[in-house]
Amino acid sequence: MTAMLPAAGRTAPRARKLAAIALLSVLLAACGRASAATYYVDFAGGSDTAAGTSATTAWKHAPGDREASGRAGGAELRAGDTVRFRGGVAYRGTIRMPASGSAAAPIRYVGDEWGTAPAIFDGSDAVATVERCPDAVRCGNATNWAQLSLISFKPPSTALVKFFDDTGILYQGQYPAPPDPFFSDDINSYAKFPVSAGARVRGGELEWPEAAKRLAGNAEGTELSIWVQANQVVRRTLVGARGNVLVFIPGDVNPYTDRDGRYAIVGSPMLLDAAGQKALLESADGIFIGGGETFVLLGELYRTGQLELIRQRVAAGVPYGGSSAGANVAGLLIGTTNDFPVAEIPSRKALGIFPAVINPHHPTPETKPEFDGRAGKIKIYLQFNPAENVLGIAEKSAVRLHDGRVTLECGQAWLYRTDGVRALAVGEPVPELAAPKS
Q1: Which of 27, 154, 305, 313 is 20 to 30 A removed from 100 (C-alpha atoms)?
Q2: Contact of 355 with 437, CB cutoff 8 Å
Q3: Has 402 been annotated as catalytic?
């Protein structure tokens, strides 16, 4: 069928344009959302790859959570939209609102429209287990271990760890105990040391008979809280005690020089004596001592009492690793160190946790003059010390003592004895250095 337009049809182009605009408007309206959307979030059972538009296709994370991925991460909220959180489920995360609504059509995040219980926004995690302390060893050797509970938990991503129970927050045990544990750094409740003891404190020693008695030989890992200049309170971890003297690595501790100092000990299981207190049971995964001046290092280990403390920890099963001077002091003596005697020391006797005298940085045969020179010096040493064995360890090499057996793990090493020298083979035991099993 054909139609003819009358002469007035000169207006037809405008009509076609208006029709096109109308058609475009209709198409855009059809492609857009006709009404506000509702999304569902179930942190326990949802999936960010789901549609998120029904209770059975809920997301795990809400739009605006930086952990959100998939469809949840790419969702664009608009005015009037609603995000429903499943009731009774704890949601963990930080939500930054990704869009803005309007006064007439706000974007709503609600926790009381899905389920029979309110949704929970909680920054805490449930602990794994709570049990009565099974024995003293498992509970930090606390004398009252039978009255304590042992809590196991997964460490959070933050270094700040707080514990709560039905009665409120749990505070670290502290001595002297503050009137209000919330103000643990209230120096008015701290013990005092005289100005004359300040120099010793700056060196990492604090004589405190009452605290040493309270810790009962379990000082290691306890924190020492000290009032220092600029009216600050800093904490240092104790490495142990010698009699009545608490030993710690001082760093930049700088107590006042014109008034008495103040201090407290915090966090030891030995301090738990009231409900609402806690102590974290932390133990070092291992001990590592690096390089430096061997005589200075050994002198400091003697001065601070750490020599015997490290021996005890290694005997208890804590792994030890050392390089350069740290390897030197692991041996029986520091007789073959490469360092000059720049400091006076009480004795050349070292940790004695490795059954030989160690010579680190030993040259390899590829540098023959240096190799021959070092070998000659060690042989002279053995002429004056015939009862000793010397182990020379090259750069980029590792020797291991485990379960009484010494092996070269990688690189090169040489065993020197009065009857000769031999190169060690990687992986082969060294029976001449057999040590008691520990």
Answers
A1: 27
A2: no
A3: no
Task: Give the C-alpha distances (Å, rounded to integers) separating 337 from 197, 297, 298, 407.
Answer: 35, 12, 11, 21
Distance CA 386, CA 39 (A): 82
| Whether 339 is catalytic | yes
Active-site choice (165, 260, 273, 339):
339
CATH of 287-433, one of 3.40.50.880, 3.40.50.1460, 3.40.50.2300, 3.40.190.10: 3.40.50.880
Can you tell me which residue has the tokens 């035991």?
429
Q: Is 324 considered catalytic here?
A: yes
pLDDT tens-digit series, residues 254-307: 999 999 999 999 988 888 888 888 888 765 567 888 888 899 889 888 876 778
In the three-class reduction of DSSP (H, G, I as helix; E, B as strand; rest coil), residue 224 is classed as strand
**pLDDT on residue 315:** 86
Stretch(es) of the chain classified as CATH 3.40.50.880: 287-433
The residues, ordered by sequence, that sit 6+ positions from 115 with a Cβ below 8 Å of its Cβ are 86, 87, 88, 89
Q: Please classify residue 43 by burial: count the beta carbons closer than 10 Å to its beta carbon, then call 0-12 exposed, 13-18 middle and 19+ buried.
A: buried
Among the listed residues 225, 324, 362, 397, the single catalytic one is 324
Per the residue annotation, which of 165, 185, 260, 361 is the catalytic one? 361
| Tens-digit pLDDT profile for residues 348-372 | 999 999 999 999 999 999 999 999 9
Cα 281 to Cα 124, 139, 182, 289, 337: the distances in Å are 20, 8, 21, 23, 37
Q: What's the rounded Cα separation, in Å, for the pair 359 and 335? A: 9
Q: In angstroms, rounded to a whole number, what is the distance separating the alpha carbons of residues 320 and 352?
A: 12
